[in-house]
Amino acid sequence: MKCVVIGAGFSGLAAATRLLLEGHQVTILEQKTQVGGKAEGWHGIPTGPTVVTMPEVIRELFNRLHAVPPTFKEINPTTTYQYADGRIFRPYRNMERTFQELNYSEADTYQDLLFLARDMYNGAKDTFLFGPPPGMPALMQYGLKHGLKARPNMTLEQLLEPAGKYLKTFFLRFATYMGANPYRAPAVLHNIAWVELGLGVWHVQGGFAAVAQSLEKTLKLRGVEFVYGTKVQGMEVQGGRVTRIQTDKGDFQADWVVSSMDRNFTLRALGKELPQEELTISGFTLQAHLFEDRPLGHQVIFPQNYRQEWADIEADRMPRDPTIYVHTEGKKAFIMVNSPPLETPNKEGYAEQILKLLEQRYPLSIREYNVMAPQDYAKAAYSGALYGRAPHGLKGALRYGWSIEGVKNLRQVGGTVHPGGGVPLSILSGYSGALPEYRSLVKKSRDEG
């Protein structure tokens, strides 16, 4: 079967792997000149994810190709958190070591909330991560067996209200990994905290870009064709099947199509109406070269008023005092703040505002930098919304499935559909969702913790 995969981000590369292993002829169309999506970056600095979690997913994708997987090194502390009053909190995967960062009352609260996140994750993972998009029977089974653990009638803020101001802010932030406003997120998103705090944060040499390039090389050696600098402009559908993919470099025909584009871009290419729905947050980032070496690690600098940051974003304003995330490695730094999925009118001016805040709170000796605003991310993510539909409310927390209504020979994979955004989940989506018959990339594991 002749297959075309649209997009060479991690979900597209994983989809190509599955199709190749099933014996199909595969061509990947990529609008950029390199693979890896946002991992490609600027002068060796990523414009996208830098936190490596769930390394077993990446490792297994390489194993399926009989290729040497990358080497992962665990990072401890997972991240350094800095509060506006100067307090520093460094959580470790080892809980006893983390307790040394907390007072007695906080240590008890941290343990209780971490174990709750673990229980939520263990209850949800087989249905919402390591399985096909759940239908009503699977949702009912989950609800009967684990539903109460998910606190279905609570918001995340309500769940965390007793935690005290430091730990509440700390745990709220994990909902942003799904693109949510943490003050509107459902309580079930608390499970995300376990992925980082319980399963660990890792580093891979060269970052995600090196991982993507290694996959690209392996797939090429196995016969996959890559066509770069090719933007999909439309898809012709006849008899409920895609018969032609129209690009700025000519038309492509295929028996089977896998789109790893943003779901809304796929719908637009098919000439379908886009759903009217709330979108996730976007990001405003700087990729910086430094004068001095900085240690490898992740830093989160909280603002004076975390709630006000999200009030600004809800009002479609760039936050005046945002949470600032910084990843450093040698003379490179990736800096990110949350933003609404809208065009930033004066992105250079806002970048200067962020740099002034950094100068006060976490000084970096910046030699040069590049700016990426929501309108720049909008080239690959509809309206710049990095995770598609906002996961607010129980319905919002459910991701779209892998099919597009009325199109029989097309599958939709990637971060805007099941199981969600981020590199590991995008890989799971691409591999398992590339064909109608479900194939698991990783074995369903026993409960963690």
Automatic annotation (TrEMBL):
Q: Which GO terms describe its molecular function?
A: oxidoreductase activity
Asked if Oxidoreductase is a keyword of the record, the answer is: yes
List each copy of the Amine oxidase domain by range.
10-261
Q: Which domain of life is it from?
A: Bacteria
User: Which SUPFAM superfamilies does this chain map to?
Assistant: FAD/NAD(P)-binding domain
- Keyword check for ATP-binding: no
Alphabetically ordered keywords of this record: Oxidoreductase
What name does this protein carry? Methoxyneurosporene dehydrogenase
Species this protein is from? Deinococcus cellulosilyticus (strain DSM 18568 / NBRC 106333 / KACC 11606 / 5516J-15)
